[in-house]
């Protein structure tokens, strides 16, 4: 059995019902919009985010979920999908999960409007049901994601990212959404309890480990859906590269920054940068940091009684750093 199927097992029934509710939450009177949202739903990914919502809510409440849990999962998926649609426009990307992106099929203007529609649908789903606590969790996540993206763009221009700034960027860009899923799961069944913050922290730690793992793929040899060296070509400052910069002589540092800034399209130079980062222990350093986050996340789970939901969340934490793509 694939790891994802194994993780999903304790919430399989909930996930099936969620899919129906999620599809309904997207419906509109505009035929074009329905055609596009149908396309989106049929090309869904692993659906890790709703899975987090259901697993956390069941773990903290002895197996309970309610209508708020389903709404929380739908809101997070609507807003996540909206950000992906907008990301593809920003990145001018024609592919998403191996299929054509919405902007590739229907042009940028329609893609932006669809993203706006999904965002408003998510917000209204919470407002119409007075889920203001859930709405606050989501809204904070969206604000942080936007800030993280902009901080990364600002820093990429100057290539002056310190390790602390890097952690800020990935916490906002990646970890904040997983943190929102986990705190939503807890808030849906135990509003205003200390579980909400505890689970937010748990999700954040997983998100940090997840992003560092993604950074490491840039230096790997396996085919993982994104070619190696892509972060260097896009002038993204990742943890292995930052570590190498911090441990270089002034001459090496100059060469490294010049390579990333001015020669990032040169395949030979990119390969030399990858080799240099490896020789400086950049990969080992990043792997150790990733495992630290993993350990901290698992520690938060230890206090909960044994259950299939807890087992699945442990499996998820380990999957995040052991995955091959």
Topology:
Layout: H1 3-8, H2 12-25, H3 31-41, H4 48-60, H5 67-90, E1 95-96, E2 99-100, H6 102-128, H7 132-158, H8 163-189, H9 194-217, H10 230-233, H11 239-246, H12 250-262, H13 267-279, H14 282-302, H15 308-322
Antiparallel strand pairs: 1-2
Return the structural class.
mainly alpha
Q: State the shape.
A: globular
Report on the biggest sheet: 2 strands, antiparallel
Question: Hey, roughly how much beta strand do the residues contain?
Answer: under 5%
Structure summary, number of beta strands:
2
Distance between the termini: 17 Å
Which spans have pLDDT < 50 for at least 5 consecutive residues? 222-226
Order of helices and strands: HHHHHEEHHHHHHHHHH
Mean pLDDT across all amino acids: 84
List the total number of helices. 15
Strand order of the largest sheet: 1-2
Q: What percent of the residues sit in helical stretches (DSSP H or I)? A: over 70%
Rg, alpha carbons:
20 Å
